[in-house]
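Sequence of Peptidase M48 domain-containing protein (Algimonas arctica).
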Amino acid sequence: MGLCALILAACSDAAADPDMAVSIPETTPAMDRYAEFAVVVARHQAMSERVARISRRLRVANSPLCDVTRHDVGLLTHQLDDYPPSLRALALHFMALDEDGRFIRSVVPGSPADRARLRAGEEIVSGWPFQADQPLMVDNGDGAVPIRLQSDLACVAPAFVINSDRLNASTDGREIELSSALVEQVGDDAALALIIAHEMAHVLRGHHQYGLHWNAELQADADALTLMRNADYDIDGTVAAWEMGVDAHRDSQAMSATHPPLEIRLRNLEGALATLNNGPAGFRPLSDASRERDASGD
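Predicted 3D structure, token representation.
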């Protein structure tokens, strides 16, 4: 993340200066663990920022479809208590945290927070969780100042990255979890948006209340294209890539008992794509008829 990047950049600049004498100490097991943790933190931070950016684009664009929304400013925050006790010393060292306080972990590009020039590492003194009628008190190192942000309305279906070697994405009806292995494997943003939008569709339709079945998965696939289209993603290219087997998550679900065979899913996606392309331009709602069918599980 920011602090790690600064540390690594500083080391790189020093080593590149031929006039600067650099003493490189022998490594110790403790130093090796710190270096390994720094790499893990930087990789996880990059994945989290990518998922937050894609997720926010989908959630803001589709807020008219969501029963539950919130004012979103494009901030991810964290505090020391968010980390297991065994990792807190490392978190203090690498993640610009203090013993107390909540800090900005990352800022989504183009968001209200980005336009207000808020940056990772700054402390949110008060005003969090964000409320539209209240300023954030933010300390950038020169003292706390009030920051008033013009928020965007967004669906309440945030997506997070969890450390796991499994290629998996899931939702409990409130938030979406993507494994680190999946995010690393799916290099194309539109392909990752399809996965996030699929899980978001499960949230919008309340599938967690009825259990998983083929109709729910097929409906979520079709809905995902609608959600992506509303967010100005290239759904034609996404379906073409899915058909060619570019989506690693697709293949990981091929033997799943809760997911239909790939051939059925592809025909379903192609049908949904044709319906969207042949329909009117502009924002598209989800089908009320399919909502009723999906709730019944038929």
